[in-house]
Amino acid sequence: FVVSSSGSDLLTSLDPRAPLVLDTHELGRRPGSQRQVSLTVPAPADLGIDVLGVPEGSPVDIDLRLEAVMEGVLVTGTAQAALEGECARCLEQITDEVTATFQELFSYDDPRRGPDDEDDEVRRLEGDLLDLEPLLRDAVVLELPFQPLCSDDCPGLCTECGARLADDPGHAHDAAVDPRWAGLAALQPDED
Fold first, then answer.
1. Do the Cβ atoms of 76 and 65 come closer than 8 Å?
2. Residues in Cβ contact with 3 at an 8 Å cutoff, skipping those fewer than 6 apart
3. pLDDT at 3 over 50
4. Average pLDDT, integer, range 103-129
């Protein structure tokens, strides 16, 4: 636990040196005061979905506006990052970029709020610190396609042998023999 940078005795679990933790002390809880922030941070682990995501440690460019309002600090911004993953149809490696926009209100700490008054829907400041990581994670994941494709018309893989159909468009197999009739094939005379 770290003592907040505002000098109060409030303990916080946030590390002010973490790349996605921002200090809002200079806004001074004066509604209408605002600050523009542009930063590049390393991507946290598991920023994405199983088949597509931002590689851990790669740069994420974030542009923010922090604005003090009556209830807390309104954070509005965009994040841009490179994506790596694989096509959901043919498993080919793909690269892309994502631009995610977000807006979230971080409420001020309320000393009257008890430990049992947790509201999962409301993000809260810890002292003067706010953690952008959950907000960034939500925004990026919502921007990703459910099934990323290498191209819109990707034919996928052959269901019989697993060959990539885009590499071999004329790919075909002999008609499958019904196993119930396979014994009769031995009775068929050879054609010479």
1. yes
2. 9, 10, 11, 12
3. no
4. 73
Tokens of 140: 């990026």
Q: What is the H or E stretch that residue 68 is in?
A: strand 59-68
pLDDT over 90, % of the chain: 37
Alpha carbon distance 105, 123 (integer Å): 7
Q: How many CB atoms lie within 10 A of CB 6?
A: 13
Whether 77 contacts 64, CB under 8 Å: yes
Contact between 42 and 135 under an 8 Å Cβ cutoff? The reply is no
Q: Which residue blocks in 69-148 are alpha helix, DSSP H?
A: 133-143
Angstrom distances, CA of residue 120 to CA of 116, 124, 142: 11, 10, 19
> Is 128 within 8 Å of 21 (Cβ atoms)?
no
Cα–Cα distance, 104 to 49 (Å, whole number): 22
Does 139 score more than 90 pLDDT? yes
Report d(CA 81, CA 61) in Å as an integer.
Answer: 7
pTM: 0.72
Residues paired with residue 66 on neighbouring β-strands, in sequence order: 35, 75
